[in-house]
Design a protein that fits this description.
Elements (H helix, E strand, L loop, with lengths): L3 H7 L1 H13 L8 H13 L5 E3 L5 E7 L2 E11 L26 H17 L5 E9 L7 H7 L8 E12 L3 E2 L3 E4 L1 E10 L3 E2 L9 H18 L7 E10 L5 E2 L2 E10 L2 H22 L3 E11 L2 E3 L1 H15 L17 H6 L3 E9 L21 H16 L2
Parallel strand pairs: 3-4, 3-5, 5-15
Antiparallel strand pairs: 1-2, 2-4, 6-15, 7-14, 8-12, 8-13, 9-11, 10-12
Length: 393
Amino acid sequence: MEKVMELALENKDYIIGMRRYFHQHPELSEQEFATCRKICEELEAMGLEPKIVGSFQTGVQCDIQGTLPGKTIALRADMDALSVQELVDCPFRSCEDGKMHACGHDGHTASLLGAARILTACRDQIRGTVRLLFQPAEETGTGAKDMVASGCLDGVDGALGIHLWSGVKSGTISVEAGPRMAAANMFRYRISGKPGHGALPHQGIDAGLAASAAVVNLQSVVSREFPASEPVVITVGHIQCGTRFNVIAADATLEGTMRCYNVDYFLHDIPQAMHRVVENTARAYRCEVTEKFVYDAMLPCNNPEKAAARGAATVRKLLGEEGIGQQPAMMGGEDFSYMMHAVPDSLLAFVGIGNPEKGTDEPHHSGRFQIDEDCLPNSAAFYAQYALDFLNE
């Protein structure tokens, strides 16, 4: 029986080469057509039969059948890039100005292709089916939900998603049980007033003033309406209003995100409180809310105890006790949550790439974000070994 880590190291150059190819050719959410084609070409070269799934026509599903009957596990990698300008010069720098893999999805895709090579090389050890899922549009929170709706998890008994993480030490993998990443939405409000001359403000109705007050008042939802033991974040990241320095703004738009772990709060209580605050604030300033939009992009990610224990055993098998990493629960979002909610026996693992000496400890979504490529065999091996462990339980 060949060891998974040995196979991963044998494929290290391939995995790094794939990561660099995807890094050079980033594609934004719902536009991953060339990435999709490349993934299909690589899988077909392994003798596999991938198919394109999802309404965006950029998702890829591919099954690896074992020699013995058994359960089915899905391994998921996201593959979209961000509208971020790369600030680090390297031989495989992004060829697309203003677009960059600044979150590690290029490494996820390459790692799952590496895992496919590993699993096809030890197909006789697979008891059941490994389903590879290359997912588009994670950054907009639309991809996982779309793939679930397409039936990609039909008949699946367990699922695994990984995230390369600069906050986790290189050479370790974090698989703790409990909350991992928060529910995340995107919201937008449009507040409308009446234009007027800046020197005669009483003749207009200032939507900019109302919007400014709404931004401040929204923070009272966090501090005064929900328990301190239940973390809640409301961030207004974009405000747009007015047309000219001496004209009263007739319209103002607020855009932002809300994060928490409590699903009831996320879906019902907090949005209702936000609507009340924004609408009543607007009314207090003689304005009205003319647009109200909330998109629930990502549910919370929670690792079950059983899946976390299985993941820890897999890490020890590959990397020893020193390979167990640590990552506190965070307020960032991850749309793998929709797959986790569809398949309860699922795990989200953070593969460490943080190495200050290599400059790979920069924050995600930064133009200076980099991956410690020496860790890519770890993520490929973890995909493959976890699948084997799950199927052979």
